[in-house]
Design brief:
Blueprint: H1 2-17, H2 26-31, H3 35-56, H4 62-75, H5 77-95, H6 98-109, H7 117-132, H8 135-149, H9 156-176, H10 181-189, H11 194-225, H12 230-256
Amino acid sequence: MPVAVLIICCIIGMIYTGGYFTGESFVDAFAGADASKGLVLGSMVTFFFAFAFYMTRDVMTFQEFAECIPAGFRAMVAPIMILTMAWTLSGMTGLLGAKFYVHDLVAGSAGVLKMFLPAIIFLVAVFLAFSTGTSWGTFAILIPIVCNVFGTADTYQMLIISIAACLSGAVAGDHCSPISDTTIMASAGAQSNHVNHVSTQLPYALTAASVSFVGYLVAGAIAYMYESSVALVALPITLGLMFVTMLVIRSRVGKEA
């Protein structure tokens, strides 16, 4: 119940800050919401709900509930410090001009490497999101470049594939990054050592990313040479490759066990 109330109250708090209750539509209010204020409002309402919920069900005494408040603050000190240093590192990366370097690198290679450009964009997105710790920032950098490179009607297939490569690569890099806020909060929420959490999730993420890279190579080649329906060919090939990879991993793990 407290988790469900938290989700509902945070959504209500976000659309409230976006002006939903003053005449804005739900979509416009959600798009223009102040996420920080909305989450604080939702968390405060959930806090009082949890207090009443636990007191009426005799799950905790008032003293135990009060002792949990400073304990929760102490538990969040380490994640807050990690987030602060991660955002500082991300800001320094931006000041060094990483996004402009990536822009020039990708735009300069577009003329001669269009067949391999989806796979290149995927790798660049992975590297950029891993280095900066943000997938949304990577979207903002690479998607305009992709749209500029493949903006004509005769490159429509390559545009779709390249945008998909940008989105998936950014999410993969953000998932692996030790300075990503989502990774930091995941380890904090699970009360796991942050370095252990990052190192244990890397094999899973990199396996899927490697198979995806091969899939984008195949999709780019098909779209460049045949301009056919890429999904009907590239998707089954990639799924088959992932299935074979899982069988190989299962065989190796079985032998080691």
